[in-house]
């Protein structure tokens, strides 16, 4: 899936152990955007899952975590251990926001890389937010392909004993 500058998608990752922990690594699954005009830096965000409203809630890391991806197919491993980001009992939402901090992109640029998505038969675990206008559940592609699609993000967690 490719998107515009200012677009953020956040995936919910459940905590199957119901024990708190700390994030060690975030793994993003990226895909080459053919004929990309601009390779966007990514601002990685972390949210407590708001069970009551069923969406990303309180932001857990108050500083920007910006990574500069390559426009190719690969797994991007991001070491986040030094940020002490909690892995709450209710799980976590991890957001990927496409940014242009130096205002280098043009209005109709094709933005790369794309975040990979996977089909899900039963649950939508991804929310979208464009320029902080509010979260909405599901992917634009859900309507086109009549399936649920979810952002592919992995984590490694240090669990408390």
Percent of sequence in beta strands: over 45%
Largest sheet: 7 strands, antiparallel
Compute the gyration radius: what is it?
Answer: 15 Å
Mean pLDDT: 89
* End-to-end CA span: 38 Å
Number of helices: 1
In total, the number of strands is: 16
Secondary-structure-based class equals mainly beta
* H and E order: EEEEEEEEEEEEEEHEE
Q: Which shape, going by the Cα principal axes?
A: globular
Any low-confidence stretches, pLDDT <50, length ≥5?
Answer: 141-146
What is the helix fraction of residues, given as a range?
under 10%
What does the model show?
- The protein is mainly beta and 161 residues long.
- It is built from one helix and 16 strands.
- Strands 1, 4, 5, 6, 9, 13 and 14 form a seven-stranded antiparallel beta sheet that branches.
- Mean pLDDT is 89; it is low at 141-146.
Brief descriptors of the model:
161 residues, mainly beta, seven-stranded antiparallel beta sheet, five-stranded antiparallel beta sheet, 1 helix, 16 strands, globular
Write the layout of secondary structure elements.
Elements: E1 7-13, E2 21-31, E3 38-39, E4 42-50, E5 55-59, E6 65-67, E7 74-79, E8 86-87, E9 92-98, E10 111-112, E11 114-115, E12 117-120, E13 126-130, E14 136-137, H1 140-145, E15 148-151, E16 153-159
Parallel strand pairs: 3-10
Antiparallel strand pairs: 1-9, 1-13, 2-7, 2-8, 2-11, 2-16, 4-5, 4-6, 4-9, 12-15, 13-14
Give a summary of the structure in a few sentences.
The protein has 161 residues and is mainly beta. The protein has one helix spanning 140-145, and strands at 7-13, 21-31, 38-39, 42-50, 55-59, 65-67, 74-79, 86-87, 92-98, 111-112, 114-115, 117-120, 126-130, 136-137, 148-151, 153-159.
């Amino acid at each position: 899936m490719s998107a515009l500058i200012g677009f953020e998608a956040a995936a919910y990752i459940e905590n199957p152990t119901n024990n708190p922990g700390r994030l060690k690594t975030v793994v993003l699954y990226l895909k080459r955007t053919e004929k990309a005009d601009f390779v966007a830096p990514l601002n990685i965000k972390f949210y407590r899952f708001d069970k009551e409203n069923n969406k990303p809630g309180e932001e857990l890391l108050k500083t920007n975590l910006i990574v500069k991806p390559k426009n190719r197919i690969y797994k991007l491993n991001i070491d986040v251990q030094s940020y002490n980001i909690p892995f709450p009992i209710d799980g976590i939402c991890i957001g990927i926001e496409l940014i242009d901090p130096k205002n280098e992109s043009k209005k109709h640029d094709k933005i790369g890389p794309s975040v990979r998505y996977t089909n899900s038969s039963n649950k939508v675990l991804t929310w979208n937010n464009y320029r902080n206008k509010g979260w909405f559940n599901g992917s634009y592609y859900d309507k086109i392909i009549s399936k649920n699609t979810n952002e592919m993000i992995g984590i490694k967690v240090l669990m408390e004993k």
